[in-house]
Amino acid sequence: MAQNHQNDSLGGENMPKSQHKQTNSGKKRSSIAKISVLFSLICVLAMLVYKNAETEPIIPKESDNTAEQPSTIPEQTPELESSSPDNNESKLLDFNPAATDSTKPELLIKETGIMVDGQRVSSYNFSDPIDFGLPQDYTSVQGIVTFRGNNFRDSGSFGTADIAEKQFSDSYWTVPTTSLQAPNGSVWTGSGWVGQPLMMTWPKDVRSHMNMYDWAKNSETLTEVIYATMDGNVYFLDLLTGKKTRDNLYLGFTFKGAGALDPRGYPILYLGAGYNSSKGISRAFIINLLDCSVMYEFGATDSFSLRGTLSFFDGSALVDAETDRLIYPGENGILYIMRLNTNYDPAAGTLSINPSEIVKWRYNGKRTTRDTYWLGMEDSAIIWRGHIIMSDNGGNLMCLNLNTLQLEWVQNVLDDTNCTPVLEIENGHPYVYTSTSFHGGWRAPVNETATIPIWKIDALTGEIVWQKDYTCYTEDGVSGGTQGTLAIGKNKLADLIYVPVARTPGRTTGKLVALNKQTGEVVWEKETQVYSWSSPVTVYDKDGNGYLVFCTAGGYMYLFDGLTGDVLDSLQVGGNVEASPAVYNNTIVVGTRSQLIWGVTLT
């Protein structure tokens, strides 16, 4: 289980001014032409910025391709019934996963159970099957509606960016957040892991029925940032200005996860709390965004859970539009599937749900004890066709048939796994990219190191295709390894994946690594003097050139050239960034532990 830093904001609580230089004429800065100049600039920035326990990150000038190369395991996979050379753009493929001898579920899973509408059953089949399509078909709305965008979890950005100077603008907006104290005394500040904002361009006729301020209702176009934070609030902001579009929604629980919007464009927010509060046990909410009322709650003290009263929801839900079903894994070890029975009339501005056929699936791991290899899912799940792929706290990467609730394969991913797996179809074949963390005391003591593999896994069988290992440190409650989610390259970055690895090669340092998808070989690595739990985001211009936005616990936001790893710009944001940014065209939004939400424009 990932535990966000409590009262631990490496960049300090006070927001320093941007270190970006501004000319007297107000003109845009010229691009930095040489990497040596950029390196010097970053060194100066690091000296000027307020420092806490760690030195601020300094990116090495040159790429380091000397790391040990991965082991490659020959693929032994059944053929797909149809294929196409176009990644994620093929016709709808059949997907029939099946275990090999090494990925049989019974090797790692002791038992599973099913409950339907409060009654335990030995088996269950849905009468109208769940069948998810390609990621570009998950939603047609203009926005980012779930963690990493869609059912493949392969994008934290929407649209294309108009990038000329390859820099962050000197003009940015900030919005203050606050903190929330839990009953046990823990104080949760600002935005934490995973903390990705959601974004939606609401049609004007939909906004006319919302509890927005008049100026927001009457705007010709408006993209709303919907940001649930650890202070118990959901913030509603104008993407371009940061101006509040409506009052905060205070629910009084710490929200670590992104939540999710309904992919059909319905004004519904699905949001899970990540910690208990004075208001009670953590739970999941279904919220009407017309008036910000709570329509339904579930998950608190669920008697079907094998984790007792723990009921956190850090993952981000998905909705099957065709069957009107919500699919939501919880850290209580239960996968919830429910028919919403949604009734939405956009003309009248009315919305209701009446959940039925509430199906719960649970499992128990063979390694699970009270103190190690816990049950429960903190990541956000992949869904492809009728199958869900999800990692858990107990080192299990599981592929489950959603329509029969039978496990199809389980891969051993060694440790408490918090990063979200990512799916990609390559030459007609589906693969999963993922990694894990180092939970001290499970595989090695806290004061030692452990291996953190990055894996490419065959989604049909669960077999490992290749793995690349890193050696990581950890701290109690603030784990090393891969906490942020991998970024999948597309367009001109289509050969690469990007992985943030925390607490390597030292206890407080980290790396952002670019690996070749086919071989797992290192293409480039960049070391930061403070590690990162944040997820890198790929951004593309109209020509397909790719860039990475990457934030660190040292309080820096970086812009990288995705092909070369060259640092194009950096911005000091005044505090530890555990949250993952989301990018809408040219605008980046991310929150910090030092209680600020930032809106930054790429130029």
Question: Would you kindly provide a written description of the structure presented here, covering whatever features stand out?
Answer:
- The protein has 603 residues and is mainly beta.
- The chain has a single domain, classed as Methylamine Dehydrogenase, Chain H.
- It is 4% helix and 35% strand.
- The protein is built from 3 helices and 43 strands.
- A 6-stranded antiparallel β-sheet has the order 3-2-22-19-18-17, with no helix packed on it. A 5-stranded antiparallel β-sheet has the order 1-31-30-28-27, with no helix packed on it. Strands 4-9-10-11-12 form a 5-stranded antiparallel β-sheet, with no helix packed on it.
- A hairpin with a 7-residue loop joins strand 33 and strand 34 (496-502).
- The two termini are 38 Å apart.
Summarize the model shown.
The protein is 4% helix and 35% strand.
Evaluate the radius of gyration: 22 Å
**From the coordinates shown, what is the CATH architecture?**
7 Propeller
Fourth CATH level, the homologous superfamily: YVTN repeat-like/Quinoprotein amine dehydrogenase
The domain tally reads 1
Distance between the termini: 38 Å
Structural class: mainly beta
CATH topology: Methylamine Dehydrogenase, Chain H
User: Tally of extended strands?
Assistant: 43
Question: What would the keywords be for this entry?
Answer:
603 residues; mainly beta; Methylamine Dehydrogenase, Chain H; 6-stranded antiparallel beta sheet; 5-stranded antiparallel beta sheet
